[in-house]
Amino acid sequence: MDRAIAKKKWTTKKVMTIALVTLVLGLIGGSVYYASGGTKLNVDAGRITISEVRKGAFQEFIPVNGVVLPMTTIYLDAVEGGRVEEVFAEDGAMMKKGDPILKLSNTDLELSLANQETSVFNLLTQMRISGNAATQNTIMKLNQGTDVDNLYREAKRVYDLNKQLYDSQAISLQEFKQSENNYNYALQKKKLTEQILKQDSVSGKEELAQAKESFKRTQEALKIMRRKVEDLIVRAPVDGQLTSLAAEPGQSKNKGERLGQIDVVTGFKVRVEIDEHYITRIYPGLMGEFTLAGKNYKLSIHKVYSQVKNGKFQVDMKFEEGVPRDIRRGQSLQIRLALSDETQAVLLARGGFYQQTGGNWVFKLSDDGSVAYRIDVQLGRQNPDYYEVLQGLKPGDKVITSGYDSYMTTQELILKDKK
Predict the structure, then answer these.
(1) Which helix (H) or strand (E) is 163 found in, with range?
(2) How sure is the predictor about 35, in pLDDT bands with cuts at 50, 70 and 90?
(3) pTM reported for the whole predicted model
(4) Is pLDDT of 100 > 70?
(5) By C-alpha distance, which of 221, 226, 234, 220 is closest to 81?
(6) Could you say which of 289, 306, 338 is where a domain stops?
(7) CATH number at residue 307
(8) Residue 375: is its pLDDT beyond 90?
(9) For helices 173-230 and 107-167, what crossing angle results, to 10°?
(10) What is the residue range of 352's domain?
(11) Alpha carbon of 414 to those of 44, 205, 278, 348: distances in Å?
(12) Are residues 325 and 359 in the same domain?
């Protein structure tokens, strides 16, 4: 008798298929889970920094370092090169305008001065000789003119007389014509002599003017040469303190070489170096402050140097409310330079998290402080202490502000106290 065979519900093939599908779905789900940042991580609360968001006064500023300098500094450069013969003042000495500082010697310059003086003397001698010669020549021509004038008058007298005699037929035509010719000759010679004397006078005046101009230029050149020799003695250009003197007897100094400087100590300024990143935000009038001996002092920018060197540019700041007592040239100051006015804002303390998130998200603690959730935020301006919160947080919220190196793919942190 035939017996019915029961059909198997779970065949090996069916089991394998279901297992494979389950594995694939698990892998897909796990990938989605991890990709969505849905991981949780236990964190020791003692190893992180938690800061509370608050509302308060905010001012964007940057810390910069400044150096105290005199308000005015006059640099001493060698106008002429030479050998240092003598130093009259020491570095740090207080100088009056015109006080000698050091003396240089330059034999070439001194020889040039002697040659220039000789040239002026020779030119003056030559001018006197030329002047005497011109005077004698003029006298000679005047004498010649006198003779010509006398001959003219005599020829005219004879001509006038003979004309009357000829009109009365007392003399012949031949004798009258001879006197007429002599008169015309004397007249022409008189005119020519007058013209020569006039030209000679004009030429003499021009030569004299040229000689005087040449002598004047030579004298000016001599004055310049004498000033060059006088510049071998370096003197204080203003009242002030001699600093950075770099000269010892026997040293050779080239023309234009820096010898030292005079600091006008009637006031001080602060020279500050700022990162070129801020160059478009720095302008005269910006305020800064520093603390010295427990007291705050205010500064303002009054000059911006646009040249960038080694990634930095410089500004000069002046004291707004008096110079601190006993402040010294070269003293360093730590200055807080304000880039904005003081306003009320929601503030979050600065921390290492910003390097990983760029200020786009943070871990915010739950109300009971046991869990920190990843949330999106928007941060604005910043200073060395705080970030300005624009969106995502409110006063009273608590945020993990230490570094997020180990939490970049984590969505939720479970905070546990270490026991």
Answers:
(1) helix 107-167
(2) very low
(3) 0.53
(4) yes
(5) 234
(6) 338
(7) 2.40.30.170
(8) yes
(9) 170
(10) 39-58+343-416
(11) 8, 110, 41, 22
(12) no
